[in-house]
Amino acid sequence: MVLHHSGDYAEGYELLVLRSGDRAHMLMDFASLSLQKGTSWRSNANDERAFLLAEGMVEFLVSTKVEWVGSSEDWIPDLKSIYIESLAEGGTRIRASRTSLLEENPIVLHLPAGTEVEIQALSERAVLYVSATSNDARFAPRLYLPFECQTEFRNEGTLQETSTRIVRTVFNKTNAPWSNLVLGEVVNQPGRWSSYPPHHHPQPEIYHYRFYPEQGFGMTALGTEAYLVRNRDTLLITDSKDHPQVAAPGYAMWYLWVIRHLDGNPYISPEFNPDHVWVDKPGAQIWEMRRERQ
After folding, report:
1. Is residue 20 classed as helix, strand or coil in its secondary structure?
2. Any idea which of 34-38, 153-157, 237-241 has the lowest mean pLDDT?
3. What CA–CA distance (Å, rounded) separates 58 from 187?
4. DSSP class of residue 212?
5. What is the model's pTM?
6. Looking at domain 2-263, which of 3.40.50.620, 2.60.120.10, 3.40.50.80, 3.40.190.10 is its CATH number?
7. Taking CA 183 as the corner, what is the angle to CA 106 and CA 216, rounded to the nearest 5 degrees?
8. CB 259: neighbour CB atoms within 10 A?
């Protein structure tokens, strides 16, 4: 199911997916958070939450200590995009910035239920994406930094590079076993495919799209149905349906992906459609168009 979005995000917190009613099976909420300079928003929800910074500069004021790579040794990353300060009263101040979804790895603040955070925009505009789900586990708040993101050029060297894309995994069952979510991004080259070969999994998943330039578009398949997707649209993936993606030529397609583990059946890896796994095998014979010479 595609949820089409018209125009820019609403100011403040705009709930795009609510896990109730006919979408209760998604098991997670998804929202945009758009703030103008000097405005702020506070969250103290009884949910696990992940805040992914999409654009601009923000300040996070977290009510308790936040962990990051090296925090146990009091190591502060020397990054222009990050400032971290442990406050005397036990909280944490974080300033983070991002200028490009395509060129820069993500910064994500990951909080357990009940931990309070206030987010203030320090730039003229800031946009974040908020994923939330139920989780009774008590884990330490965590800041995921750009350099620790697992980044790969997936399918590189195959299929004449027609499905080579950047896949960025922020956290999954390996580095966040306490979480009920898996979170990451894909950068899809213009005119190329991603989420390919076609694959599926029983766990519900959300894709949220951005295109560059913004008038761009792509196509997605859900099982045997195809849908047009545009800037700021959201895709709901359920029922173990294959979901390959393709961007129109000329338009780079970025999408956030978030998967919700099922109780007793966490997401580890996808199941590939057996009809199409041959394309990844060494020596696969792929037809190539050639210009005939007279």
Report:
1. coil
2. 153-157
3. 23
4. E
5. 0.95
6. 2.60.120.10
7. 65
8. 22
